[in-house]
Design brief:
This protein is about 0% helix and about 40% strand. By secondary structure, it is mainly beta. The protein has one domain: Neuraminidase (6 Propeller), CATH 2.120.10. The strands form eight sheets. It has a six-stranded antiparallel β-sheet with strand order 1-2-3-31-30-29, with no helix packed on it. Strands 4-5-6-7 form a four-stranded antiparallel β-sheet, with no helix packed on it. It has a four-stranded antiparallel β-sheet with strand order 8-9-10-11, with no helix packed on it. It starts with 11 loop residues before the first strand and ends in a 35-residue tail after the last strand.
């Protein structure tokens, strides 16, 4: 049955309590009729005070979880022009999301005794073979350096080591590790990024010693784009979905010795979000226990005249062939809602037709809005059958005014990506939420549900049988820059 009910709307009343080390629950009481209260933890805050960037702002989180431990990482103190932040933050829970310890990565930027003026694009993974947490970041001076920081407990972090410092303009770093006992390459960790100065050439580097050292970067043959998110199958095959000429992917079957086999998952048709909000149809990719890969992104192909975006999905069991794109049925295609910046999670203990999926995303209740009228909101939906059916969308946080979130020369920002992870069967989405400014100081920080979100006994919805609008296409021109900070222009002859 196709979805027929409308998404949640309504205001919120927020009560906040914050501890210097442990951040305990505070409640966000939703006033929407018939919607259960959603309790949120504020798990960090920007404590930097340098005058060159915006405070207090935190944006662009990634997360990873193992057992009862979950680590989130994000930018702190976002700059307006040129990208990056004052430093990279972390927040770690070792008790299933009850309490959190937060801080800033050491030895990275000049604000924490490091050599770099700015830092950006954090991503986190866990290497079970070596018992270490790893965060990959970009260190920014006149050029960019790919860096990796390590920690034995997710709380006490070492100074970063250099992964690569000879890319012209490194961008959009991401990390994963092979933790499968059935893989010949268990203990291999992989970092992906693109070089905007080389036309978005995708690059990969591998570590086999817990991130202490990294092998020379390998160019992915035929791989040009950004936002790749590597995942590892139980047999050791690495599959990397990325935004390129449409949504694409590439693979490695030999532990990162070589990379290639670029395949097209689908074309991309996306709606340009209103209000000057910074977004892009980057992938969010995850994998289930059997090695099935799920990739989602924002896309307007199911909407008449591309008036708004849905979150859409494709899956693969080998990284070579991909299923037809389906729509996550959060609300009807006739609705006014615009959905974007998805963060997908798959419960790593589940697979196939019983795989548990959790999806956190941002949305506008009204797609046609302006910077003064847009109301940015966080939502969540889940599936207990591998994406065949989905729960009704929940409003998790918001609405927010766009003037409450960090500004950049490419638009207002909560992040080019966001993230969700499962901890003991519950989905924890970590997201940037803005509140009313304190004078000229922002109040944008990282939040997550107190107890995680689970499936509820409620109607389920399917998009089975839905077809894209014929000849669907984006309602905006081609991408003009290789990077999302507007630093490296694409020649008009190469814009797609």
């Amino acid at each position: 049955m196709n979805r027929t009910s409308l998404p949640f709307r309504g205001g919120a009343t927020t009560h906040v309590f914050f501890s210097a080390v442990l951040v305990f629950a505070f409640s966000v009481i939703l006033t929407q009729t018939a919607v259960a209260q959603i309790l949120l933890n504020q798990i960090s805050t920007d404590t930097f005070t340098n005058g060159s960037s915006q405070h207090a702002t935190e944006v662009e989180p990634d997360t990873f979880a193992v057992g009862s431990t979950m680590v989130a990482t994000f930018q702190m103190g976002r700059f307006v022009v040129g990208g990056g932040s004052s430093d990279i933050g972390f927040s770690t829970s070792t008790d299933g999301g009850v309490t959190w310890t937060n801080g800033a990565l050491p030895g990275l930027t000049t604000f924490v005794g490091g050599p770099f003026a700015r830092a950006s694009d954090p991503s986190v993974a866990f290497d079970s073979a070596h018992g270490v947490w790893l965060i990959v970041t970009l260190g920014i001076n006149s050029s960019t350096t790919v860096l990796s920081s390590s920690s034995g407990d997710g709380i006490n972090w070492n100074d970063p080591v250099v992964v690569n410092n000879n890319s012209g303009f490194a961008d959009k770093t991401w990390i994963t590790c092979d933790n499968s006992p059935t893989s010949s390459f268990v203990g291999h960790c992989y970092i992906e990024w693109d070089d905007a100065f080389a036309g978005g050439q995708l690059k990969m580097s591998t570590s086999t010693d817990g991130g202490q050292t990294w092998k020379a970067a390998i160019n992915v043959p035929g791989g040009f784009g950004l936002g790749g998110q590597p995942v590892v199958q139980p047999n050791g095959t690495v599959i990397v979905p990325f935004e390129g000429n449409g949504m694409q992917s590439f693979t490695s079957t030999n532990g990162g010795t070589s990379w290639g086999n670029v395949k097209t998952i689908s074309s991309i048709s996306d709606h340009g979000n209103a209000g000057g909000l910074r977004t892009s149809p980057l992938p969010s990719a995850e994998i289930d226990a059997a090695g099935k890969v799920y990739v989602v992104w924002q896309d307007c192909r199911f909407r008449t005249s591309c008036k708004s975006n849905d979150i859409v999905m494709s899956t693969s069991t080998n990284g070579t062939t991909w299923t037809a794109v389906t729509r996550v049925p959060i609300d009807p295609v006739s609705s006014t809602v615009d959905h974007f910046i998805p963060g997908l999670a798959v419960d790593p203990t589940t697979s196939g037709s019983t795989a548990h999926l959790g999806l956190t995303y941002y949305f506008y209740p009204q797609t046609s809005c302006t910077q003064s009228t847009c109301r940015l909101t966080v939502g969540f939906t889940s599936s207990q059958d591998g994406g065949t059916t989905w729960s009704a969308g929940k409003k998790v946080a918001g609405p927010m005014r766009l003037t409450w979130i960090a500004n950049t020369d490419q638009g207002r920002m909560v992040g080019d990506y966001m993230s969700t992870s499962y901890v003991n069967g519950k989905a924890f989405g970590v997201f940037a939420k803005g509140l009313l400014k304190n004078g000229s100081v922002f109040n944008e920080a990282m939040y997550t549900p107190v107890t995680g979100l689970t499936a509820e006994s409620e109607p389920l919805f399917s998009s089975l049988g839905e077809q894209p609008v014929p000849n669907a296409k984006s309602d905006h021109g081609p991408r003009e820059f290789y990077d999302l900070d507007g630093m490296v222009p694409i020649p008009p002859s190469k814009q797609k």
